[in-house]
Amino acid sequence: MRNILVIGYNNRNVVCSARRAGYNVCSIDAFHFLDLQECAYASALLERRAGPELIELDASRIKARMVAFGLEFDAIVPGSGMEMFDHNCFSCAVLASSPDNKQKASNKKYLSKRLEALGIPHPDCYSPDEIDAIEYPVIVKPAFGSGGLFNRIAKDKQELLSVLENLCSLYHRRLDLEFMAETVVIQDFLEGIPSSISLLSTRKEALSVAVNEHLIGIPWLSRLPFAYCGNITPFRNEQADEMETLAEELILDFKLLGSNGVDFLVTETGPVVLEINPRFQGSLDTIEKAMDVNLFEAHVGCFRGELPEKPEAKLFAARGAIYSDRELIIDRQLLNAILREKGADIPPPETNVLPDGFLTSLFSCASSREDVILSLEQGAERIKTFIECKKKISSI
């Protein structure tokens, strides 16, 4: 196996991992970052959606793009946003779980019912048509995906109706509780530390590879209170062993293959399962840096029925995802300021970044959690200071 096509919303980490593993990789994604282009044999742009919908692709368009790349592909790897990807349309191998299993695992409502049946702690879920029975506060999320960008807290019925109306506008519809019942999840809002288990799995076994701390709604990285802002690997805590056991049970129960993740909340009473990510996760970078492994190669091995030895963390690695607090055009000066930080997800020149849109990623590796956080914060401050100074100069 040599030639790989990766299709997803943001492919940079998967494509670069595959390149390091020695594969020829082509990419179709929505960002087309400069460092992705450097790692890829060839790449193409995926139409970006503004709302929280899953991405649905026309198989004929993908096949035409594959021909244009000029390679005979051995396998396709679906990434983020590709839970609806139809394996049956392609003659080459698709290195992913079955679409049905991925959709079930991604659907927060289905997952809640399954967790209830398995007796695994999770936030209680409500339907929008149960508004009068809801106990507040609650958190409202799209039923599939979104990286926390559209998550909102509601402290009472009036706030909940306002949140639902705002979400409806993303779907370009009037407030329709029946429609909302299919597209959003309302969960009890719980306090705790966001975290995840990253796993590898075959049809018979699952292996917890890493415990990760999630950076959610970090004020110096994003203005959005629940935006995924990166993570730190490893996350050392007393509940780690229990989380690993629960995550392995879930991955096998949903019959997921390859690299997958389970998100948790570490609470005072124990770990609570939040969701399953049936695909490569945003923690790929920090796991590879902290543990000196190649997750893409390990993912491919899972489809041969092979699992690696459980790796050990050699240091702390952190990724910080920076979101812009204003509309920006990436000019040469700003691009150079981003490049000086030696991060990843480098936006191409002339990219239009919207307010609260993703800007770039920073990395840090050190012997302690405190040091990696400090390094990320200093890097984010340098970029934000540059943007602010540039604004002041342009206004003179």
Please provide the count of β strands. Answer: 18
CATH topology of the largest domain: D-amino Acid Aminotransferase, Chain A, domain 1
Look at the structure and give the mean pLDDT: 91
Computed structural class:
alpha+beta
CATH superfamily of the largest domain: ATP-grasp fold, B domain
Gyration radius, in Å: 21 Å
In the CATH hierarchy, what is the architecture of the largest domain at level 2? 2-Layer Sandwich
N- to C-terminal separation? 57 Å
Q: Extract low-pLDDT stretches.
A: none
Give me the side-by-side strand order of the main sheet.
Answer: 14-13-10-11-12-15-18
What are the SSEs and their pairings?
Layout: E1 3-7, H1 12-20, E2 24-29, H2 34-39, E3 42-45, H3 59-69, E4 75-78, E5 93-94, H4 99-106, H5 108-118, E6 125-126, E7 138-142, E8 152-154, H6 157-170, H7 177-183, E9 184-188, E10 193-201, E11 206-216, E12 228-233, H8 240-253, E13 258-267, E14 270-277, H9 284-291, H10 295-302, E15 316-323, E16 328-329, H11 332-340, E17 352-353, E18 358-366, H12 369-395
Parallel strand pairs: 1-2, 1-4, 2-3, 4-5
Antiparallel strand pairs: 6-9, 7-8, 7-9, 10-11, 10-13, 11-12, 12-15, 13-14, 15-18, 16-17
